[in-house]
Design brief:
The structure holds two protein chains of two kinds. Chain A is mainly β. In chain A, about 15% of the residues lie in helices and about 40% in strands. Chain B is α+β, with helices and mostly antiparallel strands. Classes of the chains: A mainly beta, B alpha+beta.
Chain lengths: ~700, ~230
């Protein structure tokens, strides 16, 4: 291995360590349910070795695969988007030392499951968007013979039709246009290469896998239809034989290691780890039991003379604040009369909102005088009430241990929009305000930079927030790097557009220490079903100014609409108080759609940071434990040539709830966006605390789906 | 990594505890460090010999007035004493010092709270009726509900029968109880489990039992120390 390749390999291993090490460390816990599925090949998709199979991995599984032979390294991240659709992104380095770094996306679709004598059948596209290094398509069938053997056969085009090829059988049906495969790249790359799909010569491939009697050890042999033409031309490898062989060992937690022989000339190694958002990484502990409901022992008519006692309400506030604190929740306010009580609180405790509401209901049953029969529970997010759940105390008492407790209490609960304001007199002084600070380490990761696939900074971050009055919050974040390699990017932006994002290298290099943000935010409820936000100050790493937003979201609606207008100026590279000359007004109108079947869609239309106009389309797979995995793309009125490499902006984003990892109650989440390229077209302002994200967990459908945790 | 950076990392992690948040709300990294520690501790615990069942003396129970139950979770080989925290409509909520909760109705475990894979809801009416007449081999249904990793309810409906195993005299903390040993056997398409009850021949009370919570926590054994 040359020094560059060693570096590359170390770096890709670090990705594996980040994604997989986490899993190795935590999924090995005794209660973890192991992830499973067919073997993944050198491309990170279900495969023999290089050749695809028709098998699918379990729905929603995420896998990270690294494969390496001398001169070719591939790191792939795969996601089973639906039970039938798999998407895999890949970063590859070619050459020794590497002369080419390639990013590619594969998609495959399971046409038919294995059934009786019929094999499973899949169709797939390799390198759908890229520059064509791995461009190829296939149709493949896989049949299992008993519990130990699978047999696979298929036909490939493009790269998968490059060895032992024959005239495209499709050209007989679809016309002679299918005889030749274009080699030009559409736009500046990054556009689906539909002009190539299933064109040009085709070839057959196939192979078998055999689960050996040694537990976890699988042998695979394949006849490859990939001639490795590019690699042979570049002198990376010699194609001596179409036969490839591998031995794979699968650990109990689902991770695999494998050795393989490629085309009779190279020995390779490969490893994979997998996790599934549906299966908690750590279920060893899920936090303490709730307080039991207190069932009133006295009978109606209840004594209401306590209402005449002047300090009754303040005492009840204090008691409830204490009870809520035991559950990690934050008391905000209480309005109490002879028969009705309304309690406002912040969910600082539980990933699932119904669990927090259930705990508050239990606390109210313990603390409030017997005559109070109606409990209204109002969660508050950044100073504004976001939901109202009204319950009859009698129902809480009688349904606590019912065999259908959660379904019945859901039917009895009145779920609606909250009144816009918390009465001042109901508050427990300033002690309930959002005021906190923290000093801790941070890690800032950027992946898939063309010349430096893993860039990471580690340092210390000081954060604080101070609520002056309900909804008015000052906050700031300041960081000092300790070590890292994010400042080592030497590529200068060659963008012909205003450098609204592509100067990130300068920010990375000069922004140490950095004022990450320093803002005054005001959150308010301008009316029924309406939410508002105004943010002023240093909004994000690269921009400062003013950002304002309005959101319409009825609690029970699957749809929401919002508008946002921002007047911003580009910040100085040193990320302190100064600014650069560039300023812009951006705006967008957004539609949000919780489809209810585990998918979430969003469309934003408007003006972007470089002054370009267009729309962003986002699709997320959402899980009711808080996981989100999605992709987006932005099309604006900037031509591919002006945009540069990639032709338009696109990326992946995911959110992982920390309680999924720890098994402990927490509302914390970890979010990351993977952008293959950071360019200036379709760039958006990255302001904190956008309204939809603030309210989405408190909305009807999501509450209903998670309601099983009410009595937890 | 150079040695200095490792040192800095250690400092950084130790600093992760600095925040205004009250206890029980650790920072992201703090939580992570906690997890690693837990994992190491778990590994150590595995290598050690399992703890023997606690030896109790009747004298130690003398002053205790309210219900006290000794529980043994087989999977973790963990013992705990649970005392009555609340009673609601015949359902007893028993809580341990580390805030794990079992809910019993007439000695039958109907819910758990604070365990991984909690039994969230169940229907014990059929079983309670059958336990009273163990010689009649009537079959009844037994519904159980848990939450999966996505917070969705998972319901299993078992078809069950009870049978009389025989008369047995059991000992609980230096005291002997003549009991009838009754076994409930439940099946659905996916699994079979059995619950064992030792019911006093004098007052019909369940003094000892071994009951299945669910697929993740497995079986728990209960002994009533103080009724």
């Amino acid at each position: 291995m040359g020094p560059n390749l060693i570096k590359y390999f170390l770096l890709t291993s670090r990705v594996l360590l980040l994604a997989g090490g986490l899993q190795m460390l935590l999924v090995g816990a005794p209660d973890a349910q192991a992830v499973s599925g067919p073997l993944l090949g050198t491309f990170g998709t279900p495969a023999l070795i290089d050749m695809p199979t028709a098998q699918v991995v379990p729905d929603s599984q995420i896998s990270v695969t690294v494969s390496h032979i001398r001169g070719i390294s591939r790191t792939s991240i795969g996601f089973q988007l639906t039970p039938r659709i798999n998407a895999t992104i890949r970063y590859s380095a070619h050459g020794k030392p590497a002369f080419n770094y390639d990013r590619s996306l594969d998609l495959s679709y399971l046409i038919a499951r294995e059934h009786g004598y019929l094999p499973a059948l899949s169709v797939g596209l390799r390198d759908v968007l890229g520059t064509g290094w791995y461009s190829g398509e296939y149709l493949v069938a896989t049949k299992s013979l008993g519990a130990r053997v699978t047999v696979t056969g298929g036909i490939g085009w493009g790269r998968l039709g490059s060895y032992g090829s024959f005239r495209n059988p499709l050209s007989g049906v679809l016309g002679s246009g299918f005889d030749t495969r274009p080699t030009t790249t559409l736009g500046m790359g990054g556009i689906p290469a539909y002009d190539r799909w299933f064109r040009g010569p085709a070839a057959l491939f196939g192979g078998i896998t055999w689960k050996t009697p040694i537990r976890g050890l699988t042998f695979a042999a394949e006849y490859s239809s990939d001639a490795y033409t590019r690699e042979v031309t570049a002198g990376i490898l010699t194609h001596r034989s179409p036969i490839n062989l591998s031995l794979t060992y699968r650990f109990r937690n689902g991770a695999t290691v494998a050795g393989y022989v490629l085309h009779g000339s190279r020995i390779g190694i490969m490893g994979s780890v997998a996790l599934n958002p549906r299966l908690p990484a750590n279920a060893s502990s899920i936090g303490p039991a709730p307080q039991p409901v207190f069932r009133r022992v006295d009978a109606p008519p209840y004594d209401t003379s306590w209402t005449a006692q002047g300090d009754a309400a303040p005492i009840l506030r204090k008691n409830l604040a204490l009870l809520l604190r035991q559950d990690g929740l934050t008391f905000e306010a209480l309005n109490v009369g002879a028969t009705d009580a309304t309690l406002w609180f912040r969910n600082t405790g539980f990933g699932a909102v119904p669990e927090a509401i259930g705990r508050v209901a239990r606390a109210m049953s313990r603390a409030l005088p017997s005559s109070v029969e109606r409990f209204t529970i109002v969660p508050v997010a950044r100073g504004i009430p976001v939901l109202s759940v009204t319950l009859a105390r009698h129902d809480i008492e009688t349904l606590e241990h019912d065999p259908d407790a959660s379904a019945k209490i859901y039917r009895k609960a009145q779920i609606s929009d909250a009144a816009p304001r918390i009465p001042r007199a109901a508050r427990l002084g300033h002690s309930s305000f959002l005021r906190s600070w923290s000093l801790g380490p941070y890690g800032d990761l950027s992946l898939f930079d063309p010349t430096n696939p893993v860039r990471l900074d580690v340092g210390l971050r000081l954060k604080g927030q101070y609520e002056l009055m309900p909804g008015l919050i000052l906050s700031g974040g300041f960081r000092k790097k300790l070590f890292g390699n994010r400042n080592t990017v030497t590529r200068l932006s060659t963008s012909v557009m205003p450098h609204v994002r592509s100067d990130s290298g300068f920010y990375d290099r000069q922004g140490d220490p950095a004022l990450e943000y320093l803002t005054g935010e005001y959150f308010f409820r301008p009316g029924h079903n309406l939410y508002g936000r105004i943010t002023v100050g240093y909004l994000e790493e690269m921009y400062g100014g003013l950002s304002s937003e309005l959101l319409w979201k009825p609690v029970s609606s699957k749809l929401a609409f919002g508008v946002e207008v921002n007047a911003v100026r580009q910040r100085a590279f040193n990320q302190l108080l100064g600014f650069r000359p560039y300023s812009i007004v951006t705006a967008r109108a957004s539609a949000y759609w919780d489809m209810g079947n585990g998918f979430f869609g969003q469309v934003d239309v408007g003006r972007y940071l470089a002054g370009d106009y267009g729309a962003t389309f986002t699709l997320d797979r959402v899980f009711d434990n808080g996981w989100k995995i999605g992709a987006y793309f932005t099309l604006t009125n900037v031509s591919a040539a002006t945009f540069g490499e990639g032709s338009f902006d696109k990326g992946l984003r995911f959110t992982m709830p920390l309680n999924w990892l720890s098994g402990k109650p927490s509302t914390r989440k970890f979010s990351h966006t993977l952008q293959p390229l950071t360019r200036d077209g379709g760039a958006r302002l990255d302001v904190r605390n956008r309204l939809y994200g603030l309210v989405e967990d408190y909305q009807g459908d999501r509450l209903k789906r998670r309601w099983g945790r009410f009595w937890r | 990594m150079k040695k200095s950076t490792v040192t800095l990392l250690v400092i950084a992690i130790s600093l992760s505890a600095c925040s205004s948040a009250h206890k029980g709300a650790p920072s992201g990294v703090g939580m992570f460090v906690g997890l690693v520690k837990e994992k190491i501790a778990l590994g150590r615990k595995k290598r050690q010999t399992p703890p023997a069942a606690p030896v109790l003396k009747r004298a130690a129970l003398a002053g205790i007035k309210s219900t006290l139950v000794l529980a043994h979770l087989e999977k973790n080989n963990a013992y705990g004493a649970l005392s009555l925290a609340a009673s609601n409509g015949g359902y007893q909520s028993l809580v341990s010092a580390d805030k794990r909760m079992l809910i019993l109705k007439d000695g039958v475990l109907v819910e758990t709270r604070g365990l991984a894979g909690d039994l969230m809801e169940s229907d014990s009416a059929g079983l309670s009726a059958a336990l009273k007449h163990p010689r009649r081999a009537v079959s009844f249904s037994h519904m159980r509900r848990w939450l999966n990793g996505e917070n969705h309810k998972v319901t299993a409906r078992y078809s069950c029968k009870v049978k009389l195993v025989g008369n047995e005299t059991i000992g609980i903390v230096e005291r002997k109880y003549p009991t009838r040993h009754v076994r409930e056997i439940c099946t659905d398409s996916a699994r079979t489990f059995q619950n064992d009850f030792w019911i006093s021949r004098r007052d019909g009370k369940i003094w000892q039992s071994r009951q299945w919570i669910g697929p993740v926590p497995g079986y728990i054994s209960l002994q009533v120390l103080v009724p």
